[in-house]
Amino acid sequence: MVVTDGVRRVLDGGVYADPSVAPVLAAGTRVPGTDNTPRELSGREVEVLQLVADGRSNKEIGEALNLSALTVKSHLSRIGRKLGTGDRAQMVALAMRAGVIR
Fold it and tell me: Exposed, middle or buried, 1 (CB in 10 Å: 0-12/13-18/19+)?
């Protein structure tokens, strides 16, 4: 049933997250920063970063999350500041190593 619901959501243009991770997304996720200080990513920032990892453009991410491409760019800018890099690939790599995204 969970798989069916997730597939339906994605096919309808939404985003699916396993219910077991909902509390983590709601509370924000801690990602080690480059200065060894944990930085928190919001649930939305994690969603955006996961879509970046999936190879989506800012426009495609905006369409998937019902955001403008400019808002996606703002999220990526904040993520970059928190992770200490403006490079999309490095953001993804850091978040994957920290276990924040797959």
Answer: exposed
CB-based contact 40:91 (threshold 8 Å): no
pLDDT tens sequence across 36-49: 444 689 999 999 99
Contact between residue 92 and residue 53 where contact means Cβ atoms under 8 Å apart: yes
Which residues make Cβ contacts (< 8 Å) with residue 53, sequence separation at least 6?
Answer: 92, 95, 96, 101, 102
Q: What is the pTM of this model?
A: 0.65
Pairing of strands 29-32, 38-41: antiparallel
Amino acid at 21: V
Query: Which residue(s) pair with 29 in the sheet?
Result: 41
